[in-house]
Amino acid sequence: MSENNHHISSYKDHLLVLLILIFLTVITVAITSIELGPFNTAAAMLIASVKAAVVLLYFMHLKFDHKIYRITVGIVLAIYAAVIVVTFFDYFYR
Amino acid sequence: METTTHHEDLHRDDTASKLGMWLFIFTEILLFGGMFIVYSVYRYKNPVAFHIAHEELSIPMGFINTVILLISSATVAISISSIQKGDRKLTIRMLVVTLLLALTFLINKYFEWGAKFEHGMYPGSDLMANLSHGDMLFFSLYFFMTGLHAVHIIVGMILLGVSLYKVQKGLVHSTRFALLENSGLYWHLVDLIWIFLFPLFYLIH
């Protein structure tokens, strides 16, 4: 197989992604250091999910790879989300 | 060395090998994902104990380790870009930096765990056994999940070390880099897990 038009991420892009990730980490630490009650958890998890998406799309190259990878990752994350929802429905309404 | 025309004498399918790596990564996601659910459920059932217990963890230490892992992910990504561009020297340099960062992460973990051990806080200790139910759950999950993550760091270091060796030997190069790419995917997974471990254990209250 030949991937002649294979996308190669530039070094600059990688460094930019790194800066964004560190910035988001600083924001998470800042947000959780102030008292927001239940929003602390929500904000921290939301930012962590954004960071995870950035790592998946750029560092793990999903954005540029064949779409079969994106589809399979999507399916797995959907299954995982379903397990979370079912588990918490169980615990909240027990 | 390489000739310009590609001669395919050996069967090789980079797409399939990468898909195989992803399938393995899925099992890892579900493994850690399962533990994250366990953690969340126990946290929901023992909110006060988890809140007090989490204050024992050092946020600066966790933050430094997070940044170390993020940088190491970037250096791996750069090494993959550079091998594709045929810049072997930069690839080697970036992989060496990654391995050093991974080692730094483990050394930090050693001191972090070591401080807990000195206070008699380790799995199976008398202190742990006498903790309240919620505290015990928090620290058991803390040691288990960060410990399993550290094992993944070591495995990732081995994979990247083998890739580094093969790059030096010229066995991994600009038209054949699946091994490095797949090791890189594994390394990013280790980073991905830590992205969730850090806020869950160190930050949320």
Account of the 3D structure:
The complex is a heterodimer of chains A (94) and B (205). Chain A has 94 residues and is mostly helical. Helix content of chain A is 74%, strand content 0%. Chain A is built from three helices and no strands. Chain A is flat, with a radius of gyration of 17 Å. Chain A starts with 10 loop residues before the first helix and ends with a helix. The relative contact order of chain A is 0.09. By secondary structure, chain B is mostly helical. Chain B has one domain (57-203): Cytochrome c oxidase, subunit III, four-helix bundle (Four Helix Bundle (Hemerythrin (Met), subunit A)). Chain B has seven helices and no strands. Chain B has helices at 14-45, 47-54, 59-84, 88-118, 126-129, 133-169, 178-203. The relative contact order of chain B is 0.17. The model of chain B has no long low-confidence stretch (mean pLDDT 93). The chains are: A mainly alpha (94), B mainly alpha (205).
Helix and strand arrangement:
The complex is a heterodimer of chains A (94) and B (205).
Chain A: H1 11-33, H2 39-59, H3 67-92
Helix pairs in contact in A: 1-2
Chain B: H1 14-45, H2 47-54, H3 59-84, H4 88-118, H5 126-129, H6 133-169, H7 178-203
Helix pairs in contact in B: 1-6, 1-7, 2-6, 3-4, 3-7, 4-6, 6-7
